[in-house]
Amino acid sequence: MPKRRRLATGIYEDAYGRSVIYSLHGKPVETRFEVDRPLDFLQRWRKRQIATALELAPRDPRGSLARDCVRYLKRLKGTVGYKAAKSHLKAWLHYFGRSKRRWQITTEDIDLAIAQWRRDGKSAGTIRHRCRLLQAVYRALDGLGAACPVAAAKRPPKPRGRAVTVSDTVIADVAAKLKRQEHPTVNRLRDSKTRARFLVLASTGRRPAEVMRAEPGDVDLVRRVWFVRAAKGGRHTTLALNDEMVAAWQLFATADAWGTYDSRSFVKTLQRNGWPTHVRPYNLRHTTAVAIRARGGDLEDVQDQLGHASLETAREFYLHAIPARQAQIAASLDGRFDAEVFRAHPPTPLTAAQQRRKDRRARRTPTTDSHDRSGTAGETARIGEDSEGRPRAASSSTDHGAPKK
To answer: Using CA atoms, how far apart are residues 174 and 195, in angstroms rounded to an integer?
Structure first.
């Protein structure tokens, strides 16, 4: 290796050119330049790189990932998504350990964590939420322009949505069972809060977060209007209320169900009273949207009712959600083919020659168990008996060629 000489702080020269060395996240970084590159240019370039590295460096590199997650969660206390954020960040702590320094995490570490969760069967949506929360920790504690290993990680593609709905009969049965649980003779539910929240979600099709953020002044039952507060990147909207929605909000106000509630407990209570275990109560929105489309509403009507920020969201989920129209189109396609082509005939019986070939193939491919049993029995017979069936002693392979005495 050619000997190099020092020109200035962090700048060296050898037979092949000049190199500039500076520190980035505690690790030395070397960049090569031509031998005729001016020294003052190299000094200015190194100074800019150091300033950029200081901007991208973590503001508090001493803390562990667990400590920084706690600092971030303190900012979310009291918000609707606090419990979900805490659950997603716990997954990172379980993978990296509580003593891992946040500035030591690289993009490769994030990719390996994502691969491990894929092998564990975690859904793409769950992995994307975990990455989003960890990136939010970096942005909140280090600034928007700081380096973040999650930004360059390869996340799973966004899953395409599918409108899973439930029938109105199921919704009515769940509401009736909840009402019976509130009866003094049963007394499984102390009040009507769960039923009121469920009926508001079912009748309006709005998000649970929007119901949690609703305040008494937002619902005007006289004018039959609900001023919906934005949630999930949506927008503030005004929703007209029909008779069923007004009745649901009246029950809501009577039960004093305002404010946030435990969504997990809410789901378990619904499932105990007949709600399908494979369907989220959030899918009440899909049920409302499909009902709008079935009654002749267009995508803009769905967007206004459900509060989507973009029409593309409604288009992705509910463009083809018109069962009656699809049934009409399917019926119009009937009669293109002769019914005879769909009629099944009984199989033709095999000839004698075909049956013999089939039997020979079956004998050639015996089952594994019968083959093993027959082979083992045959070996036992050959080793334990002579040609006349008399028992004989086993001899070693070295005695086969020995002369008889």
So the answer is: 9
CB atoms near residue 388 (< 10 Å): 6
- List of residues 6+ apart from 256 with CB closer than 8 A: 193
β-partners of residue 240 are 225
**Residues 4-32: pLDDT tens digits?**
889 999 999 998 889 999 887 667 889 99
Q: Output helix, strand, coil percentages for the chain, rounded to the nearest 5.
A: 55, 10, 40
Q: pLDDT digit string (tens) for 255-296?
A: 999 999 998 899 999 999 999 998 999 999 989 988 888 888
- Beta carbons of 250 and 221 less than 8 angstroms apart: yes
* Gyration radius (Cα) of the chain, Å: 36
Cite the DSSP H helix spans in 143-207: 168-181, 193-204
Give the CATH H-level superfamily of domain 168-327. Intergrase catalytic core (1.10.443.10)
C-alpha 341/C-alpha 293 separation (Å) is: 36
**Domain assignments of the chain as residue spans, ordered by start:** 5-56, 65-142, 168-327
Q: For residue 19, what are the β-bridge partners?
A: 12, 32
Cα 233 → chain centroid:
19
d(CA 61, CA 41): 31
Residue 20, Cβ density class (10 Å: 0-12 exposed, 13-18 middle, ≥19 buried): buried
